[in-house]
Design goal:
The structure holds 2 protein chains of 2 kinds. Chain A is 33% helix and 26% strand. In chain A, the strands form 2 sheets. A 6-stranded mixed beta sheet of chain A has the order 6-7-8-3-9-10, with helices on both faces. The mean pLDDT of chain A is 89. Chain A is built from 8 helices and 10 strands. Chain A is of the alpha/beta class. Chain B has 2 domains: 183 residues, no CATH class; 84 residues, Alpha-Beta Plaits (2-Layer Sandwich). Chain B has 12 helices and 4 strands; from the N terminus they run ααβααβαααβαβαααα. In chain B, α1 packs across α11, α2 packs antiparallel against α9 and α9 packs parallel to α12. The longest helix of chain B is centred in the middle third of the chain and has 44 residues. The N terminus of chain B is likely disordered. The chains are: A alpha/beta, B alpha+beta. At the A-B interface, α2 and α3 of A face α10 of B.
Chain lengths: 229, 303
């Protein structure tokens, strides 16, 4: 579960990214976080991953209080999350399999666990046949699926997808969003940050709209809420 | 909920990654090792110089012999009997005194030289080069200064040479060498740390995305840090081992070829110093490796 309670965030340069944001995402939900550039979406993600701490208010993520948790606890908070980026962030020198296994290895998984889990996740994202390929040998959609597999590998409770379809064509975008929907159906909470109105409208999900550091809409129904309010 | 799993990447993982880092920037790593070896050699050479001077001083300080040189105007017979004219107080502190004629002194000096240098002494008359002398062994070395003063009052004694003076002069040299060594050690340690830090900086820069991914998937700082620390330590230790053998070779060459021609200087063989030198080099290499890598990697962990 993710909760932001009256959260304010001001950066050192004086810019106020969030001005009293309150939101709650329950386990098993699929939520779109939408808003224009500079609206505060990235700040919400950074708060959730413990990269920054709120200036005021409270941020609770999967039982961790981001305000008060120790720096040494941040890695453990992050292990409950799976983060997907617009630019995939795959390691070019490693194969698809190694990219995914790497995420398990860094959290201390054994070789046996890795051997069991990686093929399962690769199958889930439909890339079993490309396990030995390098990222540059794959299409954008396939690379994003590898990134999703990497996010999933440590069995996170929440997947945070930051503009996951930003670099993809409409068909591949739909494919990725459908995959995230499937993952959500298996029980993982998904928070997808996006600009893409058509895609959001296509999926009848909860949409939280943010603008100017404030929540301006929170509705279920698959539309760009902030445009309607 | 807060089930924690320890990073069990294992030391083998860190070692493999550390070695990979070294070969990723082979030339930089090689250059770093080279510079650190040079720094270690300079530090080591000064330290060895200080140790040798220290040993010489200690040996001299323990020497209870003084030499009274006889005035050239004195007849041979008077010179031979001069020790009987030493004051009573001085005599009380003399354990043994031996007259050495200028001929014997010249022979002894020639004998201490290599054959090729002995030729330089041919053609000198016995009377030309050295003085008669009395080699005196003292009973109580703490009374050396007063005994010298008393002997110098005797008519016919030109001057008294005490190794204590040499020891005092050497002590000044030692203080200078120690001061230079200390300054050099600090400077060169900083240079070494900087070199390692720079090498690790390149490695971390090359792997900055990897580090970012590691952090975002939940790797602890220690897990991210270890491969770079291992890389730094391996570079430092590599430099230590190379530096140790280079120091041994340099010292043996210098003492054999250069100091070997100066028969009066007695240097400590490297075999007697190799254990502390090896320990110091390994310690420096290790600390420089750890320090340099930690200095750099800290910045990359702020994700």
């Amino acid at each position: 579960m993710v909760r932001l309670i009256d959260v304010y965030k001001a950066y050192e340069n004086g810019s106020k990214a969030l001005k009293g944001v309150t939101m709650r995402i329950d386990d098993g939900e699929f939520v779109f976080l939408v808003g224009p550039s500079g609206s505060g979406k990235s700040t919400v993600i950074k708060l959730m991953t413990g990269e920054i701490r709120p200036t005021e208010g409270k941020v609770l993520v999967n039982g961790y209080n981001v305000n008060t948790c120790k720096t040494s606890d941040i890695p453990h908070l992050r292990r409950t999350l799976g983060v997907i980026f617009q630019d995939f962030r795959l390691i070019e020198k490693k194969s698809v399999y190694e990219n995914i296994a790497f995420a398990m290895r860094v959290v201390g998984a054994s070789h046996k666990e890795i051997k069991l889990r990686v093929p399962y996740v690769l199958e889930l994202v439909g890339l079993s046949h490309k396990a030995r390929r390098r990222p540059y040998e794959l299409s954008g959609g396939e690379q994003q699926r590898v990134a999703i597999a990497r996010a999933l590998i440590n069995n996170p409770r929440v997947i945070i997808a930051d503009e996951p379809t930003g670099n993809l064509d409409p068909a591949r975008s739909l494919e990725i969003m459908t995959l995230l929907e499937r993952i959500n159906a298996l029980g993982t909470t998904v928070l997808a940050v996006t600009h893409e109105k058509d895609l959001v409208n296509r999926f009848a999900k909860r949409v939280i709209a943010i603008d100017g550091g404030k929540i301006i809409g929170d509705r279920t129904g698959g539309y760009y809420s902030y445009e309607k309010t | 909920m807060k089930k924690r799993r320890r990073n069990a990447g294992g030391f083998s993982y860190f070692l493999v990654e550390g070695v990979r880092g070294i070969f990723l920037h082979g030339f930089t790593s090689f250059a770093a090792v080279g510079v650190i070896v040079a720094c270690l050699l300079i530090m080591g050479s000064f330290a060895l110089l200080a140790v040798n001077i220290d040993a010489m001083i200690r040996e001299i300080e323990q020497s209870s012999q003084i030499v009274a040189f006889i005035d050239e105007e004195l007849t041979d017979a008077a010179a031979r009997g001069i020790s009987s004219r030493f004051p009573r107080k001085a005599q009380e502190n003399i354990k043994n005194s031996e007259f050495v004629s200028r001929r014997d002194a010249l022979d002894e000096f020639a004998g201490s030289l290599e054959e090729r240098y002995q030729r330089m002494l041919t053609g000198y008359d016995d009377n030309d080069l050295l003085r008669h002398r009395v080699v005196i062994t003292l009973m109580d070395i703490t009374r050396i200064e007063e005994t010298i003063e008393q002997i110098e009052t005797v008519e016919g004694v030109a001057w008294v040479r005490s190794d204590q003076e040499t020891a005092r002069e050497l002590a000044t040299v030692r203080r200078v060498v120690e001061a230079i060594s200390a300054a050099l050690i600090v400077i060169l340690l900083l240079v070494s740390v900087f070199i390692i830090a720079n090498t690790i900086k390149l490695a971390t820069f090359d792997r900055r995305e990897e580090i970012g991914i590691m952090r975002i998937v939940g790797a602890t700082k220690a897990f991210v840090r270890w491969p770079f620390v291992v890389e730094g330590v391996l570079l430092g230790l590599c430099a230590s081992v190379t530096g140790f053998f280079a120091q041994g070779a340099l010292y043996s060459w210098f003492t054999g070829r250069v100091l070997g021609t100066i028969a009066l200087l007695d240097v400590i063989p490297f075999s007697e110093l190799m254990i502390p030198i090896a320990f110091a080099f390994v310690l420096v290499g290790f600390l420089v490796g750890v320090g340099g890598s930690l200095l750099t990697i800290r910045k990359f962990l702020r994700v």
